[in-house]
Design brief:
The protein is an alpha/beta fold. It is built from 13 helices and 13 strands. The longest helix is centred in the last third of the chain and has 20 residues.
């Protein structure tokens, strides 16, 4: 595989690595524009612990879609709700009361073993012809799971309204991904509403999916703020932008609901973390990979990274996302050799399950799995996720939750307990009475 590009090598240079480790970020032959990079790190198990341009802005009275100069003001949760739906703005969104059907966080009792949290998350969250959004809602319902759907803002913006989007450092209306069809906007809106009612989380995957040069890694704090404001604008004004007056409002208020996101290609987290404070976010899932340890806060927000999982029997540590497996199995081709599909699918399942077993029988650190709605290599990565959900969400003490639910649980724990949890090796099964006091 080719070595990492200079940009990504620089982005990861501060992370501690064993002296013999080699980092690969194979981007050169990438044929799927704007998708996430892949990692494979050969590493011994005992080392696991060891210039900005200005984005166009508009005034608060401008309805062009580029976003206002003021950020959405986070509304406090009402202590009591009168049971009446509050329709917001142009009728695109509404407040229908506090969250229901979600995990109720409780502090651990002395000596209690933590639950094994598993978070399945989806970048983009477009409901396309493949029906995958609906499929994972149904699968989650069957196995009592909640997931996080990171919505891409322009997936609610018709192509003929593309000029409403003013991306940082790029021409107005441009994007590194395709704008959706009108029908896909409708189906996405329907799926978002149903998912929220079922207890799933709606997060942000921002808008134009720009990576590399002039992508998120190059954006200033103010440029990230503009991107986030526009994300809210597209979510809060889809009725005006689409003309779909027949659809009901989304059953949630984005200013209350959106509490975290994942940046495209996991780029630009430093300035992003500064930007999201303005919007009251509580976590970020944009770290470019880490080992399976209990999360900590970074710049005041919970840092929920993708993780390095045992790959090929532990020979490598591979990033916990479908695109990583795609690149290393079919060299970036979205439809590789069909004869290899069964082997590649099992290889993917084995990596996910190895990561799960390492912590389930060890430190109980959360397992994070990130994917896209796609049919790469005959859909084997979707089939792999299906098998993992079926295998792990049914096990004793396992809680398949959203990132927001995990953040709630983490906030409910004693700081000293969290500090002791973070000191554990992934595979270490401690005397819990010494950890949880």
């Amino acid at each position: 595989m080719p070595p990492t590009s200079g940009h990504h090598r620089k982005a990861r240079a501060s992370r501690r690595r064993p002296a013999e480790s080699r980092l690969f970020v194979p981007l050169g032959a990438l044929t799927v524009a704007g998708l996430l990079f892949a990692l494979l790190i050969p590493v011994a198990y005992d080392s696991l612990t060891g210039s900005d341009s200005t984005t166009p802005t508009v005034s608060a009275g401008d309805t062009s879609g580029a976003g206002s100069t003021t950020s959405p003001s986070r509304k406090p949760e009402e202590p009591e709700w009168d049971g009446k739906t509050e329709v917001l703005g142009d009728g695109s969104t509404s407040y229908t009361g506090p969250r229901k059907n979600t995990l109720k966080p409780k502090p651990l009792k002395p000596g209690e073993k933590p639950p094994q949290f598993v978070v399945f998350s989806w970048d983009g969250a477009l409901a396309g012809d493949d029906q995958l959004f609906a499929h994972y809602r149904e699968l989650a319902k069957k196995y009592d799971a909640h997931m996080t759907f990171f919505l891409t803002g322009i997936y609610l913006l018709p192509k003929d309204k593309a000029k409403l989007y003013a991306p940082p450092q790029h021409d107005r209306g441009s994007a590194a991904i395709s704008y959706p069809t009108d029908e896909h906007i409708r189906t996405t809106l329907e799926q978002l509403g149903k998912a929220w009612k079922e207890g799933h989380e709606i997060g942000s995957h921002f808008n134009g999916h720009f990576c590399g040069v002039r992508g998120g890694g190059y954006w200033s704090v103010d440029e990230w703020k503009s991107e986030i404001r526009q994300f809210y604008t597209f979510l809060q004004n889809w009725k005006t932008n689409t003309g779909y007056k027949d659809l009901p409002p989304l059953p949630f208020d984005p200013e209350r609901e959106i509490t975290g996101g994942r940046a495209p290609c996991l780029e630009g987290q430093k300035n992003l973390l500064e930007a999201v404070k303005t919007f009251g976010w509580r976590y970020d899932a944009s770290s470019p990979g880490d080992f399976q340890v209990w999360p900590a806060k970074k710049n005041g927000l919970w840092d929920f990274p993708l993780q390095m999982l045992p790959y090929e029997g532990g020979k490598y540590q591979g990033l916990s996302m479908d695109f990583n497996f795609l690149y290393n199995q079919s060299e970036g081709e979205t439809q590789g050799d069909p004869a290899q599909y069964p082997r590649w699918e099992q290889q993917t399942v084995d990596a996910y399950m190895a990561g799960f077993h390492r912590v389930y029988y060890g430190s109980r650190a959360p397992l994070f799995i990130g994917n896209h709605f796609e049919n790469w290599n005959g859909g084997i990565y979707m089939k792999a996720v299906d098998r993992v959900v079926e295998n792990v969400c049914t096990k004793k003490d396992v809680r398949c939750v959203s990132f927001r639910e995990l953040a709630d649980w983490m906030d409910a724990q004693k700081p000293a307990t969290l500090q002791r949890l973070r000191a554990l090796d992934p595979a270490q099964s401690p005397d819990w009475s010494t950890v949880v006091q």
